[in-house]
Write a structure and sequence with these properties.
The protein has 351 residues and is α/β, with parallel strands linked by helices. The chain is built from 13 helices and 16 strands. The strands form five sheets. Strands 4-3-2-7-14-15-1-16 form an eight-stranded mixed sheet, with helices on both faces. Strands 5-6 form a two-stranded antiparallel ribbon. A two-stranded antiparallel sheet has the order 8-9. 54% of the residues are buried. It binds iron/sulfur cluster (2 copies).
Length: 351
Amino acid sequence: MSVQATVHFLPLEKKKLFARWLDGIGAAAHIKPRDYTALKIHFGEKGNKGFIEPAMARIVAEKVKAAGGWPFLTDANTIYVGERADAVHHATVAGEHGFTLESCGCPVIIADGLRGNSGVDVHVGLKHFSHVSIANAIHYSDSLVFMSHFKGHEISGFGGALKNIGMGCGTRAGKYAMHDKLTPRVDVKQCIGCGQCVKWCGGHALRLENGTIVFDEKKCTGCGECILSCPSSVFEIPWDENTSAAQEKIVEYAFGVIKNKPHFSINFLNHITKFCDCYATKGSPLIGDIGILASPDPVALDQASADMVNKKFGGDFWRHIFPSIDWAVQLACAEELGLGTRKYKIVEMQL
Ligand code: SF4
Ligand code: SF4
């Protein structure tokens, strides 16, 4: 690991030069001929507008193909109720947002399968986890490119490359594990008595009595199946857990994803909102657009991205939007695990 990592910068006003810039910085240098290359991206929740433009994904896919790789766009299913909690709806939303074979030049494959339970247990032997549950298509790809929209996040202060790698590549069981044994909050009043959650509850923690749901929290394994199966938003994840522990867990998952696997990361610092693209509405940007940053080192990349936003804000922007979250925990943990360095130099190529 170099003492100081290089982070490449493309100002947003030069966005049209993105393809040339990728060539110049060697963004596809890690890709070998006949690699299955996962382009990990967030397709945006239905109704969200902050996600990365499909046209940018197409340019990255073309670079992968030029290097001889076989790219596919991918993300793993969510554990909250929404339009991306199973592969059918997730792929449909991706298509509605413009991520199609025609527009991006590569297929969309939902990484953890139909119901978010197609994964591989990867040994990591770390503080929180001995094994992490990584989405199948991520684990079995040969090389990876992470395209991350850089913005705020209610667990990690900001969400960038590390969160896209760690949380974003976990199966639904993995995502639950990262949320630290979270049992869902249950709003019984919303129950319409359909029984779907009972059918899918692996912990046998749910039963119907007099047409409404009864929850036995002691039996709950936190698998998240009820959240996916319920048509009536009865179940909700409590988001207010200890965020430092959650950040460490996200980084341990990131370790399981990228250890021994060639990878490259690109952060898009535009439309910087308080919350992530999992929210259905178009949040207003809180700060002006900056540009695109890229590096083979996701730690340096996230540190540089966070610093650039703070510089533009004139203070700690992330503490400003989430005062109780120490966003640096994820960076310190990732550096300690050898995923990269927090020391970096910004290089702006002349185009
Ligand atoms: S999280 Fe899993 S075990 Fe717990 S109630 Fe929901 S389906 Fe049952
Ligand atoms: S799936 Fe939802 S609405 Fe149906 S029984 Fe379970 S809690 Fe009630």
